[in-house]
């Protein structure tokens, strides 16, 4: 995280950072570009503005190895995946295990134990005697082991709950490699989640956003946005959640010719594989509104448009990432289309301010566009801008046929409006030229 970006974010008068004092903040998809940046912002705040009352970041990830890379500056290098929950300095916890699974000595026994509860004889409505007999034999055989496991699990969870329900001590003596304010949780958000401590803020951002997933793994896109959203909203119902932020997307608008405010919707083909992203994001939004209506949850929705900055993946298939990668590698920028489609490009630090603003001051059950109205350019214009940032490299813009696996967006224009976000006092400060220059420099 660039120091100048952190200063830009935390110096914003729009955010009351003390709202996060002593709070537990759950961030799903925390390995991702945008949510990781929000997590790092909070962790850095704990060493500055929140020194006396730091928050705790609960970073939910699927890939532990990647999380170690993303959060390396905040983790104890001696910490291992097998470290106990009672430890800190970047704990790794897996709270997605039910009581049945935890009390069984092997995964196989756990699976059999669960399904035996519902096993019936083909000719009777009562439980199958043979299975019940086997149950008793298994129970006697593993009773000692299970009791020991249950006891250890109970003690471990009790220690964790006692520690994590209490405010953290001042971080004035905390070093970057000895953090008590970051908990890594390995879990598939598409599965229900239970945590042994209260959650005050939930930022649900788990979702593949790369076009390469739309064709090859559409269900991996749908599940986090639908099942994952249900699971996080259910978690919010049983916690003292002050605010729930759902990361949607500007793609929910579909093909729309006019100015795009939060009430403008265009055509999305539900039979197209590429629509797996837009349609599942739409469903996620409606789930948020439904839970907000039925249970009074304080839900807010952010609709990000193209966001770039240090830390973004340069191989995820999005054109602006490809352009940055080309400059970093000293290669010509290649366009696989006419480049006439127009998009809005927002620098990461400006986006982070917007997300925290929506989280803390946004209106419940409302959606907000997060984009740069002054940063709307065609793809061709963007390529030319990026190529010109480092004239000493002598890079050119070339045109080539698209790869067969790429699924481009059918949306040609993006006249996005951010009046609702501006009403909260927000406006972007980083111009496209400055933002992409800083981004490219971070990789050199």
Helix-strand blueprint:
Blueprint: H1 3-10, E1 24-28, H2 33-45, E2 56-61, H3 64-70, E3 91-93, H4 99-102, H5 107-116, H6 129-164, E4 182-186, E5 201-204, H7 211-216, H8 218-237, E6 243-247, E7 259-260, H9 275-295, E8 299-304, E9 306-308, H10 319-329, E10 333-335, E11 342-347, H11 348-361, E12 366-370, E13 376-378, H12 379-388, E14 397-399, E15 415-416, H13 419-422, H14 432-443
Parallel strand pairs: 1-2, 1-5, 2-4, 3-4, 5-6, 6-8, 7-15, 8-12, 9-11, 10-14
Antiparallel strand pairs: 11-13
Helix pairs in contact: 1-11, 8-9, 10-12, 10-14
InterPro entries: Epimerase_deHydtase, NAD(P)-bd_dom_sf, UXS-like
Cofactor: NAD(+)
Protein name: Nucleotide sugar dehydratase
Keywords:
444 residues, 14 helices, 40% helix, alpha/beta
Characterize the structure shown.
The chain is an alpha/beta fold. Helix content is 40%, strand content 14%. The chain has helices at residues 3-10, 33-45, 64-70, 99-102, 107-116, 129-164, 211-216, 218-237, 275-295, 319-329, 348-361, 379-388, 419-422, 432-443; strands spanning 24-28, 56-61, 91-93, 182-186, 201-204, 243-247, 259-260, 299-304, 306-308, 333-335, 342-347, 366-370, 376-378, 397-399, 415-416. It has an eight-stranded parallel beta sheet, sandwiched between helices. Strands 9-11-13 form a three-stranded mixed beta sheet. The longest helix is centred in the first third of the chain and has 36 residues, at 129-164.
